[in-house]
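At this stage, I put together a protein sequence along with its fold in token form, as given directly below:
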Amino acid sequence: MFLLAYLGLGAFAGVLAGLLGVGGGIVIVPVLTFLFTSQGLPAPYIAHLALGTSLATIIFTSISSLRAHHARGAVDWQVVRRISAGIVAGTLAGSWVAAQLSTTALKVFFVIFIYYVATQMLLNIRPKPSRQIPGTGVMFGVGGIIGWVSSLVGIGGGSLSVPFMVWCNMSMHNSIGTSAAIGFPIALAGAAGYAVNGLAAGALPPWSLGFVYLPALAGVSLASVVTAPIGARLAHSLPVAKLKKSFALLLIVMGTKLLTTLL
């Protein structure tokens, strides 16, 4: 039953990663939290396992999605190269911080973030294109912030990188495509960080590599790799702005449900 749930979650998250540029992690993390709780995985590490596993799945989703966007010429590889060093540094630092926090603290941070993303989508809040891509030093700092936050909420960074690139006068389609490529170093560094920092944790479930739960990784990744290119193709033909409003309502429901587990 849980394997089927992982496959269904992966299929949905893969489409989102390609279609909306928000990263499937924004859905993967809360759903894995609910599934892991139902499975009876160790309560003190539920959030850590959900975050680490989410980032590990995005490794595969981002590869599939970025290839589809690259085929359409929608990835600015110069931006990817300039921001990646900061992305990796920030993500590794964030995964270390997450390992020191409790599951409750991580859930609170994620609920706040999910409401932020939902509000941004629902009200169509986006910065006005008013500047150009900054120099290498600033890009390192921006990448560090995006990586740090992304590792704490288990996402590929699209909720942060897409608005930043739009602000820097990049088209929406190119911002989404470039964000998909940026998701790869975030996911790779984040998964490695959670795996290594979780090795010292006691009472983890079988089939765990640190804070990465391998059965969930296999199920979600298998399905998401298949559906991510579908989402990327749909992004060039569907009214993405309208779809984001509907997705924002779904995020509010999931965030509220996760919040009730804290009260």
Observations:
- The first strand starts at residue 208 and ends at 209.
